[in-house]
Amino acid sequence: AANDEGPVIEMNWNLAEYLPEWCGAQSNFNNVIASYITAVYEKMKEEEQQHEVGTTPVKRRCLSQLTPSNSRPGSKKSSTQDKEPSKDDAAAHIVFARELIAGELAQKLFFVTQKIQKKGSKGRDELDDEEEEERNMMMATLTKSLDKNPALEFVKSVCKVLSLDPNVVDQVTKLRRDLLKLCSVGEFSEAGMWQDPCISYSLPELICRACNHCRNLDLCRDQHQTRVSGRWAWQCPVCKSHYDSTEIEHQLLSVLHNTSLAHVLQDLQCARCRQVKQPNMTTICSCGGDFTPLMQTKKYQEKISIFHTIAHHYQMPQLEEAVAWIIRGNNWTSCIA
């Protein structure tokens, strides 16, 4: 939306919630992304005003098109005319975005990254706000891993968002390499690769009992959560009423039962010819290939781990007991880590 003072940007980045605020990583992330979006938006608006209705934009011809040899009858056309449009032929706002990332934005990110790195090296102070402490504990429960380098997480998050535009991928790649070097991390190292900071599991078509609003609810990333009787509960974004946590727990138990049943009763498939195993007593396929399960155990174990985290954090005793029974039976102690 835009008003008399200028454009208003609403920032709803889920990955920004997992950046630590005690060192300014979260606020600096919002400021950098908002300033970049505003600058590109204003450039696009300026470009649109230049090409108003009734005016025809004129494309400047290059020198190779003005040479007399190209205008002679029967002469061969220049090879430059057959090439695809280069970066110089891109729209003005694309060129502006590339120059912005390579110049002003890069200098700003260098300064901000060093500032966050300096604060992060000193360590964090004790939290006085209980609500912020509860929020951090929630993030610690749901996140896959917590990195002790806030500057590195800031760099990876900013570069991930900037790389969403395919027109500036080259500039962002170079910027990412320089920023990672500033954090003493290699460009192709595992620590420099961006990973989703939070687990995710969605319940499809969940209906609110108060207003009948239907939506897909991401149990881990949904922003409409409040404390009810000492436990976290989800809210309807329309009427602000709470969903029934017991009903959600029963749905998750049903999903867990169906997933476990499908994993146990699944067919075996030949790794070579991809044919489903027919005889029960054979150990290898007729083509000589080994049989492998259709549903990989690793994916099933990851889903069990997600259910264990959800059950523990949102205090679902029945779901937690069912998941713990599966973990004990398969000796998957890594799911509880």
| Strand segment count | 8
Percent helix: 40-55%
Order of helices and strands: EEHHHHHHHEEEEHEEHH
Mean residue pLDDT: 79
Overall description:
With about 325 residues, the chain is mostly helical. The protein has a domain at about 1-50 and about 90-120 and about 130-190. It contains ten helices and eight strands. The chain has helices spanning about 25-50, 70, 90-100, 105-120, 130-140, 150-160, 170-180, 245-265, 295-315, 315-330, and strands at about 1-5, 5, 200-205, 215-220, 225-230, 230-235, 270, 290-295. Strands 1-2 form a two-stranded antiparallel sheet. A two-stranded antiparallel ribbon has the order 3-4. Strands 5-6 form a two-stranded antiparallel ribbon. It starts with a strand and ends in a 7-residue tail after the last helix. About 20% of the residues are buried.
Write the layout of secondary structure elements.
Layout: E1 2-3, E2 6-7, H1 25-50, H2 68-71, H3 92-102, H4 104-122, H5 130-142, H6 150-162, H7 169-182, E3 202-207, E4 214-218, E5 225-228, E6 231-234, H8 245-264, E7 268-270, E8 291-293, H9 297-313, H10 317-330
Antiparallel strand pairs: 1-2, 3-4, 5-6, 7-8
Helix pairs in contact: 1-3, 1-4, 1-6, 3-4, 3-7, 4-6, 6-7, 8-9, 8-10, 9-10
